[in-house]
Amino acid sequence: MSIEPCNNFYFSIVSALIPLIALILVVVLMTAAPVRAAQRYSRSDLVRFQNRIIDYRSQINPRFKKRVRSRTRLIIVHTSELGLKSSLRVISKGKRFKNGCTTPGGHANYVIARNGSVYRILDKKYRADHAGRSMWNGVSNVSDISVGIEFVGYHYAPLTAGQYRAAGMLLFILKRVYGLEDKDVLTHSQIAYGKPNRWFSKDHRGRKRCAKNFDRIRAGLGPTWSFDPDVRAGRLTPDPTLAQVFYPAPGAVVSIGKKGYQSQKSDIISKQNSAWAIAGEDYDAHSTVYMLPGGKTLAGDRVASSLGWERLPEGTKVLLNQKTKHVREQAKSIIKTISPRMTAWSHAGGAYHASSTIYFLPSGRVLNGYRIADWDDLPSGTRLVLGYKGPIVISKNKTAYGIAGAKFKHPGTIYYIPGRGPVQGNKIPDFSDLPKGTGVYLPIAG
């Protein structure tokens, strides 16, 4: 008896089952994906994380009126453009403007410090006033439908690994509570919009640059939207800078830095990096300070009348949330001081951890920049110098003159005097009376 008919019979059955098997596999894979995502964090991991959240709710401004959101459709991430202490104060207590007006605080539900600590400013159910003038997919006043998370840091500087670890767990919890997807997590720069100004003749995207350095992959998220729905619908004019960051053309190469974050333009004005590209709507704010290459400083609301926007030179540094007088004093000083507003990043940028950046801590410790894990770890009152080498300790065989030569009295020669701190050479009246252990720091540039 021939076995050919039998083979054909089984072949027919298998052929018929292939589409069904494929469908079953697709369904299994689709349903298994959430399970695999849920296994990223164990229950004990999540409980431990929640128990470590720092309760900061008692610090909220009494003027802030708590209101429960009726619905939650989005999670919005921000960068504070400040150090930790100032971020917590402003977000909980409110902002103060040049004209004396203040806000009642409540500007985020959570703050994530650069060491990964999470602060609860408001319970997640309450509406935080964090998004300002905003729109997403035709819905205005995004604060009404979203949870707000602030990262301590700047939009032109990388966030830390600790912040991304904390964000991953916090976002996982919030998405599960509100039934949200990865694409429902957006940055403030994606949803904010502005009124017409000198750069745009119509309502436009790009009012804020906030969190444009946010790396979704490092926070455990999938891709964002592939387009801006409000721009596509004609409700808003696109912002070229943000469109390139969030919605690059198909096949475009996205630059990723060595630490895994998308490379961002700096806070320095150039042909490709305008005041608008750096500061957004804050370009002409009184609290935005422009530090010109020669050391001159201008508040944002004085640039047009004193210089003109088209005449801002390349190399001008843009500092947000500052006082012009303070920045001017610091720009003139060789020995700079860290304050709640003027962080190590404000002074040194990416060179905050360079070996030639020397920190003199209030405790008396002296550290090279390469020993600083993060710019926000340094306490207020820390002083620093940029582009220096040393110390060379003064001894019987090594005098100040023997170390620094004719420049031993020069203001650029820095002496670290135990118990007194760093002092410029021109401010030391008697070099014969320098105490034991005094160290000399010399500028690398000569």
UniProtKB/TrEMBL annotation:
It comes from the Bacteria. SUPFAM superfamilies: N-acetylmuramoyl-L-alanine amidase-like. It comes from Desulfobacter latus. CDD domains: PGRP. GO terms for biological process: cell wall organization; peptidoglycan catabolic process; peptidoglycan turnover. This is N-acetylmuramoyl-L-alanine amidase. Residues 61-204 form the N-acetylmuramoyl-L-alanine amidase domain. InterPro entries: Amidase/PGRP_sf, Amidase_domain, NAMLAA_amidase_2. It catalyses: Hydrolyzes the link between N-acetylmuramoyl residues and L-amino acid residues in certain cell-wall glycopeptides. GO terms for molecular function: N-acetylmuramoyl-L-alanine amidase activity. Its EC number is 3.5.1.28. It holds the Pfam family Amidase_2. Keywords: Cell wall biogenesis/degradation, Hydrolase.
